[in-house]
């Protein structure tokens, strides 16, 4: 118990004192996971919309793949990316091993199935006759997709948030391809694991609090945006 | 030349043919109701007319085959069963079709507001569409279609989900809005009153086949076959036998009872079906001493039941006969089940159908 209390005390002191390592890891987490999520949203929303609204051969298989991707083990993704960017691997010339780019790539692969799968569900949650009505009004297929996606924007926000959650809370892939370099590729999750492995519970608690606070702040923002929209209607 | 013509049109759904028509034409300026029971294929036909559902055969617009659905659809205004509004203001929803056609905001707002006003929804313009009642939302949906100033308006049971007072009010407003502009309209409905209120002609669709197309009055008084008769509310469809036919009257027997009608029996058919609308059957306590009514029968009331604003009286006159009378008449006659009454109808009322559909 003493160990925990000491750890909590030290964590609070580090947070109150804006500890340099803490700020570095928090900003690295935001940059890496934010970048991965942004890429996942930019690519995943159109793909998810096409999967949700489209009627084409192989659609069921692609949806099943997206759903499977939601449960991908981060270490498997880390292994896959590591092999790709290994010096002798197919993308070895990029020299991305132990860089933030590699971490963004790994986290993107974890986040994008989440965004695709949840986007498909989101656009399918609107009235199935709406696309027909929009076509009747003269909308092109792209306009139909855009308007339906806009109608399900609150759920799309949740899809983006789920993607961010998948990215920022994973550790296996980031550790494998980012190498946990202090001040560079050390993010909150890898920092927690590193400090815990040394028995340094104070810093570990501080990183954990920062991580939870970050996720809570973004969740609160998302919830506020969703509820504000509901109240406005 | 017809505005829209369907030739050898076959519409399928999930691999099953749901509509098969040889020809159906929509004439410019008319309101055509496609009337039929649930599952008759009405919506599938309307969606094919809107080029929103694949079909085999040909659609001709002013004589030319429709081969560019996107361009063709821009001539139409389509209203589906549900209002399907976006989570935006009512004004934006009413102008959505115009926005999709690239009309600038000031013009589309003006046209949207004009149509909203025509349909009694001008006061809703600034409200969010998600905050509307079902009736209000359907008004906006109609305004959205009319704002396009379509050459052909397609309505798929737009009143089906509304309660009776809302439906009646909206029906009146729509009839008024359409009357002023002469927009050609196709209305799909299963409601006979809606069809009668709005339509110049009625096409009866049963089991995906066009059974009859005629002016509204004729469909209701001279249905083409027994199924159409049943659907348009002709509850008395009785197998008869022609005894004698003269220029003036046809004498028939229904069971042992003689009936006189002015209708001419179908050629070569001595066993036609005699159709009488229940509204055309009168019920009295005693037979009139002198009357022009050719058919009056002693009858027993076997059943009394409410039917909307009226009372449905089932009679046994030696053959079963159904009459619809007002509630006031039922009270005045103090009718009860088992009472002996006189049922009558004029010889000019019945319509004779061939026993087998041709």
Task: Considering the chains and any ligands shown, give keywords for the structure.
heterodimer, A: 233 residues, mainly alpha, 78% helix, globular, B: Rossmann fold, OB fold (Dihydrolipoamide Acetyltransferase, E2P), five-stranded antiparallel sheet
Number of helices of chain A: 11
Shape of chain A: globular
Instruction: Return the CATH topology of the largest domain in chain B.
Output: Rossmann fold
- The SSE order of chain A reads HHHHHHHHHHH
Number of helices of chain B: 11
- Total of domains of chain B: 2
* Domains of chain A, number: 1
Biggest chain pair contact, residues each? A-B, 18 and 24 residues
Mean pLDDT of chain A: 91
DSSP strand tally of chain A? 0
The H-level CATH homologous superfamily of the largest domain in chain B, spelled out, is P-loop containing nucleotide triphosphate hydrolases
Q: Assign a percent range to the helix content of chain A.
A: over 70%
CATH architecture descriptor text of the largest domain in chain B: 3-Layer(aba) Sandwich
| Overall average pLDDT of chain B | 92
Strand content of chain A: under 5%
Termini separation of chain B comes to: 29 Å
CATH fold description of chain A: MetI-like fold
Low-confidence stretches of chain A: none
Report the oligomer. Answer: heterodimer
Helix content of chain B: 25-40%
| Structure class of chain B | alpha+beta
